Amino acid sequence: MIIEIDDISKVYEVGTQEVHALRGVSMKVEDNEYLAIMGPSGSGKSTLMNVLGCLDTPSSGSYRFVNELVSEMNDDQLAEIRNREIGFVFQTFNLLPRATALHNVELPMIYNGTPSTKRKSLAKEALEKVGLSDRMDHRPSELSGGQRQRVAIARSLVNNPKIILADEPTGNLDTKTGEEIMEIFEELHDQGNTIILVTHEEYIAEHTNRIVRLRDGRIERDEATD
Ligand SMILES: Nc1ncnc2c1ncn2[C@@H]1O[C@H](COP(=O)(O)OP(=O)(O)OP(=O)(O)O)[C@@H](O)[C@H]1O
Ligand SMILES: [Mg+2]
User: Fold this and answer.
1) Is residue 12 within 6 Å of ligand 1 at its C-beta?
2) What global pTM score does this model have?
3) From CA 17, how far away is CA 20, in angstroms rounded?
4) Pick the CATH number of 31-59+75-224 from 3.40.50.970, 3.40.190.10, 3.40.50.2000, 3.40.50.300
């Protein structure tokens, strides 16, 4: 078991208003699962991803990540789990604009103190994995959207995370480029990685093995794809 959340709720307080973004969500994710989270805008997908990714803490409920009780952790402990165990991919790529592809991929290893020579060779390896060995010295503005997302995927891989979380990774890409990105996720899944992604598109979700559908902060359906 990688993830086990039980009766998670998340309430945002904005002024005097309370927003119930998650209302009692429970799910388990096993090693090497590949699943999509779907649902209408505002249904709680990103909130759930932020909780799963230890970027945010739930208001109530328990969260176990590989048997560690994450929901009881303080900010420092959460940051450590995040850096060590979780790879993130975002819709807007979140790359450093002035840094080369290679340097962007090195970043997570700079934060965890990997020596420079090892860092460079691991970053190169990750970029090769996503088919970008010939673009290592390009800056984000010198890459296509699909290539930028591949850099972000390479960056998410370098610390060898237990799980990869991707919030609408194809949201800013055209259909063809989106399919290319999904092929990379498919390969990573075949190699043993555990992947959770959020998408609005059924054809994207169909690449995965399981679809969890949220509505109004609750799981409406959770089923295997065929
Ligand atoms: N930081 C925040 N502060 C207050 N309310 C928030 C915050 N983040 C999200 N919300 C609210 O929580 C609800 C769920 O938001 P969330 O971002 O999880 O939705 P989503 O399913 O990811 O939507 P989308 O498909 O548009 O990305 C929404 O009603 C939103 O307005
Ligand atoms: Mg969202």
Assistant:
1) yes
2) 0.96
3) 10
4) 3.40.50.300
